[in-house]
Amino acid sequence: MISLRAKHFVRKIAMAALGAVILQGPVFAQSLPGKSRTVRYAQGDSLGANYVTSQIISRAIRSLGYRVKMSTLNTTLFFQAVSQGDLDLATDINMPQRMPAFRAVETHAEIIGTGMILGGGINGYLIDRKTATAYGITSLAQMKDPRLATLFGKDGRADLINCDPGWSCGDVVDFQLDQFGLKHTVRSVRGKYETLMVEAVARVKRGEPAFFYAWSPSWVNSALIPGEDVVWLPTPEDALPPNVPNRGSALVPGVAGCAGGADPCRMAMASWNWASVANKRFIAANPAIKALIEQIKFPLETWSDWEFNINKNGANSTNVNRMADEWISQNKGTFDGWVATAKAAA
């Protein structure tokens, strides 16, 4: 039999424990750094694997207690909005191509982390493999020859599918065409890139010549496999506009499908990456978000798989969310580790 005195002691311990739980309840609820806060998060207007990462990152941000308000807009408008404090964060800013525009807002914005792609991606010029093989085309410099250029256009000039008018990669291409002496034989075609590339893919599939600028990872190089359907044309030398930084040499080793089997292959520039840009005041007030973003990276192979899936099954929200959910499920330890480290930084 437990004595009355012992029962009273046990009851006191139980009540104290219950009180501790009651007191700790609000503390636990408040331990999430994003409680009652909203992140105004932007993603670019060019559909790709970056939409999958945006969903993964959104889920991580929500795991920190934040609400997420997503916007879709081009980078030029994002830079304006983030500098004015109307948006907080984007994680798919193409660097170094966008560096000139970023410098105009860096008083109010900052780059977070070192990029979302492990090792970075590549940019360059491609033609269909059939024409490259038939005419021995192994360099971009050969497009100076009107007889070769006219294979991809008319009147002795090749039609090169370039980037959207609002994309800075198109400015890099136009600069290089001038620098390499190709202005008289190559016509830069700048329109809606995705629409132009759908036709380019169809041309290659029909066995017709095609000439375009692209990057990897992207849906383009999932639809047209370098080394099988198309080849990269090495550039004659490193050349970038003065306001675009070149982070290392454009000579990239191990590029699959480089024309003539060149290794290293001289691309349009050194490796690029999806950078994260945030409003300075926002990121200073939210160290958990900074700590989260600094950790997040995905292997090039993962990006390529996502791009292939999007090209095959579409960039609709159902498909994008499914890929995000699958990645988190298969990489739960990594995802939870990101969130735990971010909480600890708050």
UniProtKB/TrEMBL annotation:
InterPro entries: ABC_Gly_betaine_transp_sub-bd. One of its GO terms (molecular function) is transmembrane transporter activity. Residues 49-329 form the ABC-type glycine betaine transport system substrate-binding domain. Pfam families: OpuAC. GO terms for cellular component: ATP-binding cassette (ABC) transporter complex. This is Glycine betaine/proline transport system substrate-binding protein. It comes from Aquabacter spiritensis.
